[in-house]
Amino acid sequence: MKRIAVLTSGGDAPGMNAAIRGVVRYASNSDAKLDVYGVQRGYEGLIKGKLSRMDGRSVSDTIHRGGTILKTARCMEFTTDAGIEQAFKVLKAYEIEGLVVIGGDGSFRGMKDLRDKFNFPCVGIPGTIDNDLGYTDFTLGFDTAVNTVLSAINNIRDTMTSHDRACVIEVMGRNCGDIAVYAGLAGGAEAMVVPEMPFDIDELIEKMRRNVLKGKASDIIILAEGMTSCETLKKELEDKTGITLRTIKLGYIQRGGTPTMADRIFAARCAVRAVDLLVQGKSGRVVGSKDNKIIDVEVGEALKMKKTFDKDLYRIATILGQ
Ligand code: ADP
User: Fold this and answer.
1) Which of these CATH numbers, 3.40.720.10, 3.40.50.450, 3.40.630.30, 3.40.50.720, describes 3-141+259-304?
2) Ramachandran assignment for 61, one of left (phi > 0), alpha (psi -120 to 50 degrees), beta (any other)
3) I need a labelling partner for 34 at 20 to 30 A (CA). Which of 57, 67, 235, 318 fits?
4) Would you say the CATH fold of 143-256 matches that of 3-141+259-304?
5) pLDDT by residue (tens digit) across 71-123?
6) Any catalytic annotation for residue 130?
7) What is the mean pLDDT of the chain?
């Protein structure tokens, strides 16, 4: 193998640049001595032939940056046979022999199609803040996103405590409550509303009333987006408890920012495994972590694995938030 390409696809996540850097530097500096091409804007750039040669210097000064220097996109055309065939032709024209895809489950489905239809060697690195992939304990960007939420909780708590006000903080995680639970536990939130657990508003109202009797009127409630709107929840809680609430929707703040140490190290370890897999001819695999060890799983198997929610962590967070 002489030449590989790397792309980022789907939602951006902090640590994607550290992963690109890892792929480029490991592929070109290790014994493999590969040429690396960067693809602009994910699968869209692959179809349009937007590839350029990268070397160790092209990734200088990027390890600490959020977002992705290769840019990312969502590309409907790649979900069609014609789109995938066009991407394959471009890869052939550039004499690319392997592809590293950094993205979430959608990007992995695209990668699987390219492997299944054209037997093209691909490997995946899980880049998404949601931590919603079943085969890996963590995804790249999750740790940074949780730390961003945590820092917001810390700041908000100061004001809420000073004014005896409660607050609903809406975080990302439409299908996965991990951001809410990890940030809730680490930030000492009083309650977390997540898609994996039944939500009983009367129980929450009771808890808030009890907290007032204990002299605590500044509860912080973390709401995973999509469960209900923070305004609706605020109104119902205010009407039934008499406590003044504020709402804050953190939104895109959670997607950007400088990656944490954990995400940078994870990015480096994933990048090295991904390049090793391509060099060893082990295609169609996605890299991740289990019990703090780097693992790789066949992409089809990985996509079938259902994400298990850590109910014990939720239980601990709920008890400690009382
Ligand atoms: P993420 O990778 O973060 O989950 P998306 O779900 O938006 O983000 O997927 C990113 C891109 O992957 C899509 O724009 C599309 O090009 C490709 N993709 C998604 N789902 C499929 C699929 N089922 N088959 C082929 N390609 C797909």
Assistant:
1) 3.40.50.450
2) left
3) 67
4) yes
5) 999 999 999 999 999 999 999 999 999 999 999 999 999 999 999 999 999 99
6) yes
7) 96
